[in-house]
Amino acid sequence: MWFLYSRGINENTSPALSRTPEEDARRKQLESITKDSDNDGLRDWEEVLWKTDPANPDTDADGTKDGDETLINRDPLLAGPTDVLQPAPTATSSPETATTKFFDSITRELAERYVTGTLSSDTSDVQESAAAYIATATLGEVDLYTIEDLRIMQNPTDKEIKQYVLDASDAIKEVFAATFQNQVLVLAFVDEDAKKRDETLWPIIYAYDDAENALKEKNVPQQYAADHLLLMNAVKKGKESIIAMRRIDIDPVLALVGMNQFAVATRQLVTAIQNTQTTLSRNGIAFSGDELATLMNNVRINQ
Fold first, then answer.
1. What DSSP letter does each residue of 8-29 carry, written as one string?
2. Could you give the CA distance from residue 241 to residue 129 in angstroms, rounded to a whole number?
3. Whole-structure pTM value
């Protein structure tokens, strides 16, 4: 099950997460955050919010660039010069995105460096600040499970423990498969076709959601409770991370944070696997060939 290792994974290493595609994806998306394809003063992701044409610097063809119109409170979708925008919506009706927070943070930091004379003449400051922001940002409050949410079995028999292993394995086998198809996930993340991206990501999200619900219903042997809890929360955080990655078009920084948090959740998943394997071995719990046959394909139990 999850105490099992897929091909290419061993007891002493984290899963092979296709690091090169991840790094390429991060680099590509960091570049896309500041990309302005038509040089109109609006970044491409801002064009999505304004509903302007990212390939046309003057969407309404009134002689003023889209970015300039937004700066002087004009509507870039209506020909001017009388196209005054209505008052901006309040924060409650238009919540701040992770991307706007990111730019506010970076702008303040770079301004401080400029004032103190520590701002470099190249783009290294921006790259450094962006990488640090994304590495430390989170997806916000996620209601994680606690030990009180588990159905704990006191003094379980070996038979009950083995049944728990088999049941939990069945609960997360699709998550396990999706997790280690990391390159597929990354390629979907950077796919510019939103429909194709969703066709890949939604089945994975559903797999995580099904696993989360199934794990909540399991009777958990007492000595495996802590790692079952770690597993449940890793699955939940993995799901939330992929949901955030879907928002790459309208909130690219949130999507990048989601990608980073997905890697964290995957490491926690593997930790739960390794810890459970250790406990199984220490307790002398063995599985017969017939029992192994009920587990997912191409895996083995570390006995």
1. T--TTS-----HHHHHHHHHHH
2. 22
3. 0.59
